[in-house]
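Q: Could you fold this chain for me?
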Amino acid sequence: MKNIAVVYGGYSSEYEISVKSGRNVAAELRKAGFNVYEVLLTRESWDVVDADRRYSVSKDDFSAVIGGERVHFDKVFIIVHGDPGENGLLQAYFEMLQIPFMGCSSLVDSVSFDKYFCKRALADLPEVRMAADVRLLKGRGFEPEEIVAKLGLPVFVKPCNGGSSFGVTKVKKTEDLPSAVEYAFSENADSVLIESAISGREIDCAVYTGNDGKARALPLLEIVSQNEFFDYEAKYLGASQELCPAPVDAVVTAKVQRAAVEIFEHLGCRDLVRMDFIVSPDGEVFFLEVNPNPGMTAESIVPKMVAAAGIRMEDFLADLANR
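A: Sure. Below is the predicted structure, expressed as structure tokens.
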């Protein structure tokens, strides 16, 4: 029986969501019959957590002494949102140790998680439409009027390497741009992306690697936010509806799923990622971003997609664990 380490926590504002995601994944993998060890990452320590006990993880070989025996892991599920689980750092660590892990490679994660560089990597795909953007680097000045002249209003301001809508603002007036940029940089960001706002319906699509090695799209999900956009409150505090399967016609469904699979393959993704799109009123599909380690709480988007596909979550995760 495989020893699976489910790693969660991390160093970003998404810590609490990561803990919930990791615990949910661990519970589903236990249902599937694996020996599951939950590993909590904080800046202070890495520990296997078991009820009220903790066992220190050696960073030399990612093992832990539990009950007098040293435990090694056959595979790792990285369920850390943000730093260091989505920016490629943990992936590079496990690659160096030659420990198999679920998810994209360190290179793919580092590119995919940075919203600016991800869009540049997709510029070779003429069928994938994206909003116009401007990238700002920390410590360098900018002219709000020049940005608005290029992108128009409204715009979205967001950290290039953040998630869960932390640090994101929808700006409708030029004079509000500086404070929105400052807010985005406050999320420990080195760069900030400003994008033209595309009006339309927010549609998400997850893509996974099937047992035959081919990329497959899960059913679409539409997000109907009660707020100005799908912010943290809408994501996690109930201020939105999530409709799965998304109530869109077959043509739009095919366009979004085709684009998602093409992006997945072009970037070199593997196992499981989620992508966000906007579908304009005239049916055009615009790519927003890739989520290399999507949320996996019981209320998260991917588990709802898996359920809509008629797959039990424990079976879905077991396939990933056995790959």
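A (continued): The chain has ten helices and 19 strands.
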